[in-house]
């Protein structure tokens, strides 16, 4: 992907915000509970390597990624702390994980069988066992299969390093399903003896709203970036400081006469003579096409997005003639106005995670603080 370093559109990542979020989370946890920063999907759009180093410098002791390649990129960048791949890696790729000291998630006996068929050279693979307590995604679901797998993973070709589960509803008002999953967890974990080094059940939402739950490591994702895992449903139990801003500038300004239209489909007509500004950012950058009618911030005031968002450009209605080069904030604060990734998500009917991870590599990332 070509990065737009010669374009005014930028993602500004405030490292201090990430650090503050980690320190605030740490303060809520029992002594000795570690934080692994979840930096999958380009660190939720914040930039994989820059975010990983920032999180580690603030006290995170390890990193979680979704796929092996993300872990390999972190190792190439010189990171030596523990890295866990949360998804399933093919047994054929496990040698790469061993070579790079990356821990893999295993969720079935079948995986161990396939692995042992191809790997017989005595190398030691670090493994976290996934338990499916109700997420219905990956992991062991019953104690019989789990017990068989425990026999295998206690062999000399494995370092049984962790065991975990993932909650489906930790960000919801109603706790019934959460409690159901926790009961399943207790049932499954009762056959695990001895316990491995890392016992982890907490994503961001669990770390915010269920802090009394057992475990000695938290997988901190969305809250690391300062966003509320529940969107606007639950109130965070600690200060969350959003780390990412999306800014650009006006690169074209003109006056439309009453009745003239803007963008594809000519869906917007000027109600009177209006000043219209153009911004070099569009849906190919991950700013959703459905944002027509929403707003951006200029000089501490909202300006409406008019006409359809194009692939690489969008248009806004200005309060008056403004100069080319005038700063525009699409996510972040300006004066007393702010727009969060959650606001954008709500407008298009999705969640802040999808907005952040959709921000494309074409937008240059700048780190501050
Ligand atoms: C992505 C992921 C997380 C992080 O989730 P957040 O809601 O962003 O905190 C934690 N654990 C697992 C297994 C995940 O896949």
Automatic annotation (TrEMBL):
HAMAP family: Ala_racemase (MF_01201). Residues 243-368 form the Alanine racemase C-terminal domain. It holds the Pfam family Ala_racemase_N. Belongs to the alanine racemase family. It catalyses: L-alanine = D-alanine. GO terms for cellular component: cytosol. Gene3D superfamilies: Alanine racemase (3.20.20.10), Lyase, Ornithine Decarboxylase, Chain A, domain 1 (2.40.37.10). One of its GO terms (biological process) is D-alanine biosynthetic process. Coiled coil: none annotated. Keywords: Isomerase, Pyridoxal phosphate. Catalyzes the interconversion of L-alanine and D-alanine. May also act on other amino acids. CDD domains: PLPDE_III_AR. This is Alanine racemase. One of its GO terms (molecular function) is alanine racemase activity. Its cofactor is pyridoxal 5'-phosphate.
């Amino acid at each position: 992907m070509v990065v737009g370093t010669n374009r005014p559109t930028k993602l500004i990542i405030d490292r201090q915000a990430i650090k503050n979020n980690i320190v605030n989370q740490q303060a809520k946890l029992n002594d000795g509970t570690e934080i692994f920063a979840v930096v999958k999907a380009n660190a939720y759009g914040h930039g994989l390597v820059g975010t990983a180093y920032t999180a580690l410098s603030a006290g995170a002791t390890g990193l979680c990624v979704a796929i092996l390649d993300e872990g390999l990129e972190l190792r190439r960048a010189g990171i030596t702390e523990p890295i866990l791949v949360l998804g399933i890696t093919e047994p054929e790729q496990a040698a790469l994980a061993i070579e790079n000291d990356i821990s893999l998630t295993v969720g079935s006996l079948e995986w161990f069988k396939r692995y042992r068929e191809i790997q017989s050279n005595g190398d030691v693979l670090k493994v976290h066992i996934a338990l499916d307590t109700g997420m219905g995604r990956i992991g062991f679901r019953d104690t019989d299969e789990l017990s068989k797998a425990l026999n295998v993973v206690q062999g000399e070709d494995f370092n049984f390093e962790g065991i975990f589960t993932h909650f489906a509803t930790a960000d919801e008002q109603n706790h019934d399903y959460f409690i159901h999953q926790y009961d399943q967890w207790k049932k499954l974990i009762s056959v695990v003896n001895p316990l491995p080094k890392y016992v982890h059940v907490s994503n961001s939402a669990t770390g915010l709203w269920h802090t009394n739950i057992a475990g000695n490591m938290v997988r901190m994702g969305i809250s690391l970036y300062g966003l509320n895992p529940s969107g606007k449903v639950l109130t965070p139990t600690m200060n969350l400081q959003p780390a990412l801003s999306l800014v650009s500038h006006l690169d074209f300004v003109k006056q439309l006469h009453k009745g003239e239209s803007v963008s594809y489909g000519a869906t917007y007509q000027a109600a009177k003579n209006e000043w219209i500004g153009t911004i070099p950012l569009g849906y190919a950058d991950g700013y959703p096409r459905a944002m027509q009618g929403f707003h951006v911030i200029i000089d501490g005031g909202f300006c409406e997005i008019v006409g359809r968002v194009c692939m690489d450009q969008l248009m806004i209605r200005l309060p008056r003639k403004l100069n080319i080069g005038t700063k525009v904030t699409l996510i972040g604060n300006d004066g007393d106005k702010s727009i969060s990734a959650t606001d954008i998500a709500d407008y298009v009917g999705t969640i802040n995670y999808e907005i952040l991870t959709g921000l494309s590599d074409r937008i240059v990332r700048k780190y501050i603080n």
